[in-house]
Amino acid sequence: MEPLAFTSDTVFTERNRLYTVSMERGKRVYGERLINVAGTEYREWEPRRSKMSAYMTVGGRCFPMKNDSRVLYLGASSGTTPSHVSDICSEGMVYCVEFATRMFRELVGNCEGRPNMVPILGDATKPDEYKVFVDRVDVVYQDVAQKRQAEILCDNMDAFEADKGMVAIKARSEDVTASPESVFKNAEKVFIDRGFDVVDTMPLDPYEKAHAMIVVERS
Fold first, then answer.
1. For 91-107, what is the mean pLDDT?
2. What is the pTM for the complete model shown?
3. Does one domain contain both 31 and 11?
4. Which of 44, 59, 77 is the last residue of a domain?
5. Any idea what the CATH number is for the domain that residue 142 is in?
6. pLDDT-derived band of residue 13, with 50, 70 and 90 as boundaries?
7. Could you count the other beta carbons within 10 Å of the beta carbon of residue 189?
């Protein structure tokens, strides 16, 4: 297995499959495949179960997370993708914000055994409400299917002084009548107007229809 060039030593590929080094050896979070290579356990990162994995699989050029990154994850759901971020940022922290109480209960269970994952029950549109639980972060990642997705990312990046951000824009959540391309362009304009540079925009087809990952950094 060789590390992917754009992720340094944090994400690995073999036969077009992505893997992260398992922080919690022997445990599957969502039924994923585990493999052992020279005594190291890897978890397969399925692109149909994770927009972040889909972004890498379709050729995403910019991945801002490192092994010591402090990440604010908005829309953590039950913890499928956050668990891979936990593997990647093994020497950092992953603050996982989820609004739905049922998903949050599953998230709490998946944070057990992972000391760098912190579950937070909160509303991503109200960063002031969970500021008490989160220190300054390096990266904000967002997967929240509602209106104002770009603004929500900007608000959280400003609140927690993050220099880098990623957002999985779901076009149909913004405007069901507009073309996905126009929704993505509008999101890019919001970022530029708020003082961020757009460093990559990548549609997630065929894994997620009418979605694009947008990666930004502070100007």
1. 97
2. 0.95
3. yes
4. 44
5. 3.40.50.150
6. confident
7. 12
